[in-house]
Amino acid sequence: MARTRRQPSERILIAGAVEDLPEIHRMLAELPENAYGQVFVEVALEEQVRILPAPPRVTVTWLVRTTRPSNVPSLCFADHGEALAAAVIGWASEWCVTDCEPRTSVWIGCSDSPWAEQARAAVQLELADAGQQVVVEYGG
């Protein structure tokens, strides 16, 4: 049996909120089978969680705001984009290290959230500091 060389996988990070679901769904449907990475989707309520068409090595994590406390004392649960930003920054601290994969594609939606804007900047810096080729796209 002849061995075939697999194309190198591309690591991805896709992060967005419920309003970004059509775009997230489209991006996941277009990923190659050997893609790997993480998808974070922030929703307000558990009822908004659904199955997304992700390749086998792409993990989808749902972040339900009403089940998470906020860092803002006056809020009873996480602000719009807050849980997403925390997840993205946590991902960056784990995966954006020197001598790791040479290329990472990042798409971050939740464009109306200052929390998500901070996370975008943090990921951009972490990837660049790790010497990785960085492609960070923003949702609209």
Give a quick precis of the structure:
With 140 residues, the protein is of the alpha/beta class. The chain is built from three helices and five strands; from the N terminus they run βαββαβαβ.
Q: What does this molecule look like?
A:
With 140 residues, the protein is α/β, with parallel strands linked by helices. The chain has helices at 21-30, 82-95, 114-129, and strands spanning 11-17, 36-43, 57-64, 103-108, 133-138. Strands 3-2-1-4-5 form a five-stranded parallel beta sheet, covered by helices on one side. Helix 2 (82-95) packs parallel to helix 3. The termini are far apart. The model is unreliable at 1-6 (pLDDT under 50).
Order of strands side by side in the largest beta sheet?
Answer: 3-2-1-4-5
Any idea what the radius of gyration is?
Answer: 16 Å
Number of strands: 5
Helix content estimate: 25-40%
Based on Cα principal axes, name the global outline. globular
Low-confidence sequence ranges: 1-6
Category from helices, strands and their pairing: alpha/beta
Largest sheet: 5 strands, parallel
- Percent of residues in beta strands: 25-35%
